[in-house]
């Protein structure tokens, strides 16, 4: 950024501070730009709110997600409607202790939604981190070491040409038994799905990172570092990686969104988690059979998936603008 | 250009071979046993015979080679026989499904029209909606129309098809009762009434698929138009005194369509993949549902063939997109 543009940026973001103030850190500038993007701020807040609700919620909320009533309780507690039904149908079966009602086995819907959200978000985050690690590693290696470039990029092209959703479905079915035996039913499926999503979604990150590394590698500061005898390893970690951080962060947010959608799709098609270990996709799938009678059971998980993905997408959008020094400060 | 096309075609052969190997290895390495469904009372030697009858007796490389021969050599012959009445494939063993014991390709051909109808219509509808939205929101950048378009496409990105599908079913077939929630593939269109019925049952799946495609395509169209609207040639065209309509719809649009056309070509295979979910929601018995059923029934030849067909579509449309790009944009000539 030129000095004039920088001055303008400082004036724009904080008028009361004069330009004789000490230099502001880069992250401060990014935060200021991020704040000015209304959608991104809203998305970020919403995402934080959903995360908090899902993590803290079960500690505050009084019903247990795994509890299945038996005997007379079962008849009494099953198929409860959400309390807002009172507005148009006061005779419906509902209870203030179960704000979003219960399902056909008498399990509390809100508790299951929070539990499912934990799993969905955990899968999304873990798969994103795996995809990011793989993508950055392959991208940096391909960009930095010329010998490996051709090979690794052909590999990336090949992965992009694979029919990913069918293959994920096939692998999810074929490897489920073996992993369940060794790690346990829930843990096995978790590891399996995270690995499948991670292994099939690193390619865009790798391509972007490689492109950036190729450009940065030729800059003078890298030449300077190399001329004083810095090893390739520390050139990568100290000089190159910090400079490709912004595309990595942007693809991280988008990665969460796609991972959550893929996991929900798997669960929706019945290839994901078992029914007593719900995720949002699984809850949606379970509710589809009876959606004519109980549409709210379909709506809530679906709305939560969509809202989470929407907020993450907006977050990524704002982050991209904030991290791009050409846009920042305008 | 021709040499480039031929070179790409030749290069795609090893790619496809490698992909088929990857799919085969995935199915091979999987610990699942196709005999797991057989009752335990069946004696082991009978089980072994059944295994051989399914073609599982030989080592992996021979089975892979057999599958390749069946898919690339025998199936095309069957197709030629079917069209010209010849008998090249007489007595040759085709890829047989374990579920139905009938040739896989026959079932695929049966299921293809449903998928093509729904997906194809959705794609055409999406293109027809997305292009005008993209053009207008680029022309009036940051207007309320543009803001709305951005928001709607953001929603289109974020709402997964299995939720938007269920949502439209709840609204339009449960609450309002306008459309049937299940796609009836046995319906024969031969009169006005059956045509209306067909239209009614197609509206919801088409809309769900089209929403997703529209979201991506209209954003792309907008970005591409914005790139071109600030170019020097646009100023020249305006300075010549051309009308605004001609400037935008002829000069700018034609140039901005170049990347959009390739994106449209690239998107076609991914639509087949995405249609798997939509078909499941609306119970359309197309190839997506065939794949899901085959996976659940552990029908490995069917799964392998279907996955490979998806792979062929991806490679083919990548090739088409590359060639189209070269043809449409004279600045990009590969040779």
Overview of the molecule:
The complex is a heterodimer of chains A (330) and B (335). By secondary structure, chain A is mainly α. Chain A has 15 helices and no strands. The longest helix of chain A has 36 residues. The relative contact order of chain A is 0.14. Chain B is mainly alpha-helical and 335 residues long. Helix content of chain B is 76%, strand content 0%. In chain B, helix 4 runs antiparallel to helix 5 and helix 7 packs across helix 9. The longest helix of chain B is centred in the C-terminal third of the chain and has 39 residues. Chain B is globular and about 85 Å long. Chain B starts with a helix and ends in a 7-residue tail after the last helix.
Q: Summarize this, please?
A:
The complex is a heterodimer of chains A (330) and B (335). Chain A is mainly alpha-helical and 330 residues long.
Contiguous uncertain segments of 5+ residues of chain B: none
Shape of chain A: globular
Total helices of chain A: the number is: 15
Mean pLDDT over the residues of chain B:
82
Strand content of chain B: under 5%
| Sheet having the most strands of chain B | none
How many strands, which pairing sense, and closed or not: the largest β-sheet of chain A? none
